[in-house]
Amino acid sequence: MVGSVGGPRVLLRRLREVMARPEAAQKRLDRIVVLIAANMVAEVCSVYLMRDSRELVLFATEGLKPSAVHHTHLRVGEGLVGDIAAHARPLNLSDAQSHPGFAYRPETGEEIYKSLMGVPILRSGRVVGVLVVQNRTKRHYTEEEVEALQTVAMVLAEVVAAGDLVNLQSFDEPDRARQAYFQQAASFAEGIALGHAVLHEPRVRVTRLIAEDADAELERLEQSVYALRVSIDDMLETADLSHAGEHREVLQSYRMFANDRGWLKRMSEAVKTGLTAEAAVERVQNDTRARLQRAADPYLRDRLHDFDDLANRLLRQLTGVKLSSASDNLPTDAILIARNMGPAELLDYDKTKLRGLVLEEGAQNAHVSIVARAFGIATVGRAEGILDKIEPGDAIIVDGDTGAIYVRPSQEVIDSYSEKARFRARKQEQYKAIRNEPAITTDNVPISLFVNAGLQVDLPHLDESGADGIGLFRTELQFMIASRLPTLNDQIELYSAVLDSTSGKTTVFRTLDIGGDKMLPYMDPQLLKEENPALGWRAIRIGLDRPGLLRQQIRALLMASAGRTLEMMFPMVADVSEFQQARALVDKELDRLKRLDKPVPSALRVGTMLEVPSLLWQLETLLPLVDFVSIGSNDLMQFLFAADRGNPRVAGRYDLLSPAMLHMLRQVVMRCDAHNVPLTLCGEMSGKPLEAMALIGVGLRRVSMSPAAIGPVKMMIRSLDAAKLAAFMEGLYALPGRSLRDELMRFADENGVAV
Ligand code: PEP
Ligand code: MG
Question: Residues 531-571: pLDDT tens digits?
């Protein structure tokens, strides 16, 4: 093996000398490639820089033909250099030309070089270029050499950012900066926000990269990590957070990461290669980002922001930069733009000034989204590349209902959204005004309205919405946001808090509905890797095959309900015997508590969800056994039409208001009425006024929905003549069309129903 001359520390020292000279960035790059080639004993060293997020351009080379500089282009993903950029990961190949991704560029003269080692040039986790060395021989570059090249790439990132190369980079780009820009992203938290962009700049700029005294840097690093751990412990102690179970949970997982030995070890090693403590933090974070972004496990990808958050806190410790200075000068209509953030970071901002949140990454069920929803901040996410399109202070509109983002919108868009926001505010006032009024139709049919919930932060919504109780408490959410399996006591604590907050109103707990798209971070992913997860091992199927978990949950529910009424139901029941087996577990647990002389619920009502079509043909057998039935229209619809609810291509293909769906619901209503079994519908369907109207038309009298939907649905109910609608719908069930939406809309229009 041909070693490097003097090692990375010598190279870093030389680089510092180059950077100290006052000269143009291009000149600097030219010197740097020569230095690297000499130090790494490579015949070629080249720097490719990213242009317009799609293309890499050769900017400097030692060894390739100088005429190729500024001429050789590669798309991201094209050739080996493009592959390094696309995946933000190093490549180390002793025989590069035999690699299937190799793309030959004759103008460079690179055909004579066999081996290639390349690393991404990352700045704030973003690929800004690629640094490559090549050798004629089939050389095997060691791991240490890859590490060293990564360290050098980090210094290069600063040269690129600080120099006039940025201008060079955009030499033939049109100036689009001031134009209006629209992007469709995913909706994470509903609401409409008009305001001005505040870039959440969690990343502290690391300016001092090369260390003078490695031992001193190591000491600084260790002290800062210690201080970070103490500060997280302090946050866990604060009274402000202690009431909110989920926030606490998140901080506990931070503490776990902060105490991770591997993390500290990797940073210490980076310091030993010659970086300052802060540069080492950044270097390791760049690697972590690249690694986690590629992780197949969505939980791991979601944890990336936890690590980002931690690394930033550490950088603030090391550089003395104060926390969120942006938060101090926050405009009163702030729209926060971030690649991603942890919930603790969102909590650092003054919520009274925050109107909207835009995330480049994120997930609807990530902690930050849950917190944003709880605070009513309109949020959109998975807005890829949006940070490149926004300058601080830009006017922004966030439509949390549809996921739309308008950057520097035209006056027409602003006017139309201002009107929408005013309309919404007026509507909210109207909903508030009927909060304490009954949900009763004009022909005096009372309808019970319930909310769906799943976390402690959802509980105040019951009171705010004026609903009759919780029709669906999704217990799996507690399991999904935790970093470890919640204990019996964790569960009792949550269920008691829920029952305390509903003070005697209907509260229906659904037992764990995990599997499918609801993965638990700490479950063996192999176990849940399935071809068709929606049709796989999920919900009650897991509960019955592994009864330990279900029994523990049932025990927690029974214990939390001591002296009160417990209403519970099982998800995804496909045949009567599954209900019977699950019910038997409840009886067993109840007997056990009685035997132990423990307090038990004063009343127990056990029901089932109806979301698997097979159960439709067993209603005569099922109904005498259950205390109530709740239709899960989200799943029932996807199974009825064989159309994945999460796949946008087919999710909208079939209409909930189809003759098939409504006819089926009508049959279920009639069967339940005949058996005197209360029937509720708790899928998303009941939260939309027109759909809810149709449900009342088929005879449903109990619906459960997201809290924000209570006002609009109640308004619809109070303007509806239920008997007239039922008679109208009798004539619809046999129609051949794929949807009855138009007919129902016409009925609403002609009869003044507020849908
Ligand atoms: C449903 O399937 O309609 C339902 C309410 O359950 P979830 O959305 O939690 O699957
Ligand atoms: Mg369901």
Answer: 888 898 899 999 999 999 999 999 999 999 999 999 999 99
Quick one: 172 exposed, middle or buried, by C-beta within 10 A (0-12, 13-18, 19+)?
Answer: exposed
Q: Is 683 in the pocket of ligand 1 (CB under 6 A)?
A: yes
Instruction: Compute, in angstroms, the gap from residue 572 CA to the centroid of ligand 2.
Output: 7
pLDDT at 651: 66
* The token pair that represents 6 in the structure block: 């003097």
Q: Which residues pair with 183 in a beta bridge?
A: 405
Considering only CA atoms, give the Rg of the chain.
Answer: 30
Residue 233 CA to residue 235 CA, distance in Å, equals: 5
Q: How far is CA 526 from the centre of its chain?
A: 22
Which sign, positive or negative, has the C-alpha torsion 220, 222, 225, 226? negative
Is 289 a pocket residue for ligand 1 (Cβ < 6 Å)? Answer: no
- Residue pair 615/622 in contact (Cβ under 8 Å)? The answer is yes
Cα separation, 263 vs 221, whole angstroms: 12
Determine whether 672 is an active site residue.
no
Asked if residue 635 has its Cβ within 6 Å of ligand 1, the reply is yes
Q: How many CB atoms lie within 10 A of CB 397?
A: 26
Cβ atoms of 692 and 656 closer than 8 Å: no
Write out the two tokens for 398. Answer: 């966030």
Assess whether the C-beta atom of 719 lies below 6 angstroms from ligand 1. no
* Nearest-5° Cα angle at 745, 633 to 651: 35
What is the rounded CA–CA span in Å between residue 41 and residue 48? Answer: 20
Say how many Å lie between the CA of residue 540 and the centre of ligand 1. 13
Query: In this predicted structure, what is the pLDDT of residue 349?
Result: 84
Q: Which helix (H) or strand (E) holds 13?
A: helix 7-20
Amino acid at 206: V
pTM value is 0.65
655 lines ligand 1 (CB under 6 A): no
Name all domains of the chain by residue range, CATH numbers in brackets. Answer: 6-172 (3.30.450.40), 181-199+332-423 (3.50.30.10), 214-322 (1.10.274.10), 439-448+629-676+678-755 (3.20.20.60), 468-567+575-607 (3.20.20.60)
Whether residue 396 contacts residue 334, with contact meaning beta carbons closer than 8 Å, is answered with no
Q: Is the dihedral of CA 285, 287, 289, 295 positive or negative?
A: negative
* pLDDT score recorded for residue 132: 96
Amino acid at 371: V
Catalytic residue among 305, 367, 461, 672: 367
Q: Alpha-carbon dihedral of residues 425, 428, 429, 430, nearest 10 degrees?
A: 130
Q: Which atom of ligand 1 is nearest to the CA of 472?
A: 5
Pick from 220, 193, 226: which is nearest to 208 by CA? 220
**Helices vs strands, H then E, count in the chain:** 30, 22
Contact 683, 631 (CB under 8 A): yes
Q: Which atom of ligand 1 is nearest to the CA of 682?
A: 5
- To the query of whether residue 367 is one of the catalytic residues in this protein, the response is yes
- What local confidence, expressed as pLDDT, does residue 391 receive? 83
pLDDT at 246: 56
Decide if 109 contacts 65 (C-beta within 8 A): yes
Q: Can you list the residues of the chain whose pLDDT is less than 70?
A: 1-6, 124-125, 163-178, 201-203, 238-251, 254, 293-303, 305, 322-328, 343-344, 365-367, 481, 483, 516-519, 521, 525-528, 646-648, 651
Give DSSP secondary structure letters for 216-275. HHHHHHHHHHHHHHHHHHHHHH-HHHHT-HHHHHHHHHHHHHHT-HHHHHHHHHHHHTTB
Please check whether residue 710 is in contact with residue 451, taking contact to mean a CB–CB distance below 8 angstroms.
yes
Print burial letters for 363-384: b (CB count within 10 Å at least 16), e (below 16): bebbbbbbbbbbbebbbbbbbe
Tell me what pLDDT residue 243 has.
41
Q: What is the secondary structure of 32-48 as a DSSP string?
A: HHHHHHHHTT-SEEEEE
Residues 292-336: tens digit of each pLDDT: 766 666 666 666 767 777 888 888 888 887 655 446 678 999 999
CA 632 – ligand 1 centroid, Å? 5
